[in-house]
Amino acid sequence: LSPRAACRLETLGFAQVVDYVAGKQDWLAHGLPTEGEDADKPTAKDLASDDVATVRMGDSVEGVRERVDDSPYPFAVVISDTEIVLGRVGRSALEANAELRVEEVMEPGPSTVRPDVDLTSLVERLHKRDLHYGIVTTPEGKLMGVLRRSAAEQRLQETATN
Amino acid sequence: MMKSSPMSKRIGVDELQALIADGAQVVEVLPAEEYEEQHIPGALSIPLKELNADTVAVLDRGRPVAVYCWDSI
Asked: pTM for this one?
């Protein structure tokens, strides 16, 4: 629709028309604010927290182990210089030789969720994959945070009882 | 032969946010019900089917106008 709308506006004499082709779906997928009846419905972004340990592929396992132990999660998220999620490294993998690098022990390409996923879909999806945590990213794969499935389940219960 | 109009510039989310910060007008061209459910903050609703000289009178021709629908399909 939007290319036709942009063209129509030009025919109506508007000289400065731009087309946000990726549209509302893309805006929501970036976790950006909205207005309207559904704007306050809880989604993954509302539960995402930025307190997960983030590490780089070249980091040593030894240093990461300590950081994971100090964090509220049993894993660290491996990111690039531009904060794109590249992998996940859990406590068990960190029991490996301390001289190894993260790249050698990480789980590459972990499942991620978009910030605009509604909580019911989110919980179903995490259950299906037997995941207790969700890594929330933008469509470009940039880390936004991590959420607990239990927190999403609790929020749903609260919503149902209110 | 028909004269072809130049294609409007396509922008991404970062550029849209910058334009909004600079005072651009944002128009959602989806049906009004979809706009009511959720829309970009500050966006106006002018569904494509209703886009005409009368409905665009609310827009300032001196400022950029960014249009959007649901996705690129």
From this structure: 0.84
